[in-house]
């Protein structure tokens, strides 16, 4: 099973690992594309105004450009610790047991605008780049990643649970993947889509899928794991589940 997570705009600072080594990351078929995107992002950082404009940042966020400028020499840490925010707070890999963490590293991966795919043990630096950005001489990241990342993911024969957001889904479509959406339900049964806080519930699902000793192999297994963890889950179609939470 592979659980695809969205990245986060926010990243943890620092790290205790050596500088980025692209050849040491999982999925070596992505190395040349990773090298091209990393190089373009570092070069862009030489031009702060252009970096702010192309990355969609305010003038107060020059620190993010500085991160990109130092990307090749910055300390690294495992990907599942680098990303922060609502989903990763709910995932809470730091509280997993040793065996659960090993399963998380094996089963979870982060869709990344910079690296394409980040596995749990991949050591990466802090950076700023989003799926909707474009880079000089490369164009849109969708155009860069889709030709190499989509075949890699589509070739998998095991279960793929896709928890990515729309922009990251566009980097590589996985037609047979199981997708999940989150709805709130009022006392009278009316439902509406959850926006920001859907990440927390997806993080809870990812945590449950990482912790369970027996690896889920089909949709029914995922439903069972989710319900056992306390989530209310419904199957909406062959390839889509819905997590239902009470409206506030």
What are the SSEs and their pairings?
Elements: E1 2-5, H1 31-44, H2 48-55, H3 62-69, E2 77-78, H4 79-82, H5 86-91, H6 98-107, E3 108-112, E4 116-119, E5 123-124, E6 134-135, E7 139-140, H7 141-154, E8 160-162, H8 166-169, E9 178-185, E10 191-193, H9 198-211, H10 219-228, E11 233-237, E12 240-246
Parallel strand pairs: 1-3, 1-8, 8-9, 9-12
Antiparallel strand pairs: 2-5, 3-4, 6-7, 9-10, 11-12
Helix pairs in contact: 6-9
Protein name: Peroxide stress protein YaaA
Organism: Allosaccharopolyspora coralli
Pfam family, one: H2O2_YaaD
Architecture overview:
It comes from Allosaccharopolyspora coralli. InterPro entries: YaaA. This is Peroxide stress protein YaaA. The chain is of the alpha/beta class and 248 residues long. The protein has one domain. The protein has ten helices and twelve strands. The strands form three sheets. Strands 1, 3, 4, 8, 9, 10, 11 and 12 form an eight-stranded mixed beta sheet that branches. It has a two-stranded antiparallel ribbon with strand order 2-5. Strand 8, helix 8 and strand 9 form a beta-alpha-beta unit. It is globular and about 55 Å long. The model has no long low-confidence stretch (mean pLDDT 95).
